[in-house]
Amino acid sequence: MLARLIAHCRQKDPDMAIPDPLQITRREVLIAGAATAASSVPGAAGAQQAQQPEVPVSTQVSLEVNGTPRTLELDTRTSLLDTLREHMHLTGTKKGCDQGQCGACTVLVNGRRVVSCLSLAVMNEGAKVITIEGLGTPKNLHPMQAAFIRHDGYQCGYCTPGQICSAVGALDEIRRGVPSHVSADITAQPLVSSAELRERMSGNICRCGAYSNIQDAIAEVAGGKA
Ligand code: FES
Ligand code: FES
């Protein structure tokens, strides 16, 4: 087998340096084999390279953010979170982990809650995005913002924009009848129970541990006790 491989290599390239068969290592056999395979498919690597589609580095992205149409030229790898914070300077949305684990970056996209660090801006072309700045204003707070203040649902406040956007999205999911992991009957209208709220808010981490007050605030807005 080895002798045939060496003979084949010599046939393809008479100048190829091939060591004494008795001294040849496994690595050298693999290299010789690879060289033979490559030489037997003329121009294969070049053709493959030629077929590679050109990947655009940047593109135009249009979004409606807090009711205002925005169009930006963005690197196609820009996350929705970085688009909001770095390109639109809407710094209410926070970056915690940047890998989908803390919920600090939660915003509403077409009414559904989304962790914006895991969503590329280009994936949201034409979408309506609501951030904490668009939910309410200091003079006209969203009911969830007002309830968080009434119930002291924060300490440092870093997770709070994500908690509030997530809570608004979670109550909308309950209203639309979307079941959660703890819904006993997935065909029944979900309840605004403690178990449901805890489960639905489990993707939003609060390092200050303000969970019980957050729960009270959400329950108040939902019109129940949790
Ligand atoms: S920053 Fe997006 S989930 Fe943590
Ligand atoms: S209030 Fe500090 S992390 Fe939640």
Largest sheet: 5 strands, mixed
Radius of gyration, whole Å: 29 Å
Order of helices and strands: HHHEEHEEEHHHHH
User: How would you describe the shape?
Assistant: globular
CATH class descriptor name of the largest domain: Mainly Alpha
Content-based structural category:
alpha+beta
- As residue ranges, the low-confidence spans are none
Write the topology of this structure.
Elements: H1 2-12, H2 26-39, H3 44-51, E1 58-65, E2 68-75, H4 80-87, E3 106-109, E4 112-115, E5 128-130, H5 132-135, H6 143-150, H7 160-175, H8 194-200, H9 211-222
Helix pairs in contact: 1-2, 6-9
Features:
alpha+beta, binds FE2/S2 (inorganic) cluster, 226 residues, 3 domains, Ubiquitin-like (UB roll), DNA polymerase, domain 1, 5-stranded mixed β-sheet, 5 strands, globular
Write structural notes for this entry.
This protein has nine helices and five strands; from the N terminus they run αααββαβββααααα. α6 packs across α9. A hairpin with a 2-residue loop joins β3 and β4. It folds into three domains: 36 residues, no CATH class; 79 residues, Beta-grasp domain (Ubiquitin-like (UB roll)); 91 residues, DNA polymerase, domain 1. 29% of the residues are buried. It is α+β, with helices and mostly antiparallel strands and 226 residues long. The site of one FE2/S2 (inorganic) cluster has 12 residues, from loops.
